[in-house]
Amino acid sequence: MTNPDDVTPPVPAPKKPAAKKAAPVDADSAKPAVKKVAKPAVGPDASVKPPPVAASKPKSSKPPTAKKVANNASDATEPKPAVRKPKVAGPIAAPTTPIVEPLGHPAADTHEKQVIKRPDPASVHAAKIIKRAIKNTEKGDIVAKIKDKAAVYWRLTRMDRPIGTLLLLWPTLWSLWIAAKGVPSIKNLVIFVLGVIVMRAAGCVINDFADRKIDGKVLRTKDRPLATGAVSSREALGLFVVLCLVAFALVLFTDPLTIKLSVGGLILAFCYPFMKRHTHLPQVVLGAAFAWGIPMAYAAEAGELHQGMWLIYLAVVLWTVAYDTFYAMVDRDDDLKIGVKSTAILFGEQDRLMTAVLQIMALYALVLVGNRFELGLFYYLGLAVAAGLFIYQQWLIRFRARDACFKAFLNNNWVGVAVFVGLVADTSFQ
Questions:
Q1: Phi and psi at residue 262, in whole multiples of 5°?
Q2: Average pLDDT over residues 189-197
Q3: Which end of the chain is less packed: N or C, by CB atoms within 10 Å?
């Protein structure tokens, strides 16, 4: 007999679950590939159940054995992981199952989040350094340009060659000491020293403006700022006006008579550079301009114009024509080529004789000044030194060499010093 317990009761075949509506599948996917099954939940929340999987049809109509039934039961409780379909190029298919995020993490957005990158502090610091360096470079360029322009103006006003200022200054100081019969007031001394410096600079500027088209053809003047184009004509005229205004502002601190006399000085300073085109006596006009500080200084210190003061003026005009002829002898060959007139061209072969006569006349006028103002021994000793310097200058120009003539011109600074020292000593020991 068969034991009832040994007989396996027949197990009814599992019912086929109703087919659920499948999620939309990519149209490009032609294969009836394995249906996607939801991925089992991962994480602490295991309560979410995956969607049921459709059971496949049995291969045979025979009833399953007890072992197969047990296996089917285990398969029903533990779903198999879905087989992922390989990616196919084309439009992206919509997800067939919802995405379950683990607890503590927000659901992923459908669009990729934009990542905002913060600038690197080192890069920001480097950019600031570069910007600061560029700014400093620009400032440095501006400062360099200002320095270059100032250097050009310095040359234009002949501040690098003070000989002209000194030759203009000594006669002005003679007049101040004679008018004051000793040391003049500090106010007038400061005003006229500064005025001489400013007006000599203004005279050089207007002279180079007048000669801007011919200086490039003369060996001695070819490197001047206006001749080379380092300064424009407009800049030169502007600088001349500024210097004249500064000089006039200085004169305003003196008396009305001196202010009126300053107008004549300005006219002479402006006219001199243009005289060399119309007359062979531009040195006479220069002498009149250089000596104009004498009546101005005398009027400012004494409050009047003494008749003997014009003897000082005459002496300075004669002296100026003599030493500026030496200066013109340096440029005589070039001036003949370009048609510029001067006393050096006018005197010709008699240039040494004429300059010697002018020097003798200047000395005689200074002797008359000493007699008129009752000056003493030290003053005449100064004139004796000046006479010796005149002789030395005549010796220098004996061959009319350029360098020797220019050296004779420069030596006249010591003539002015000799007369001034004699005046100071004489007025101090009276």
A1: -65, -25
A2: 97
A3: N
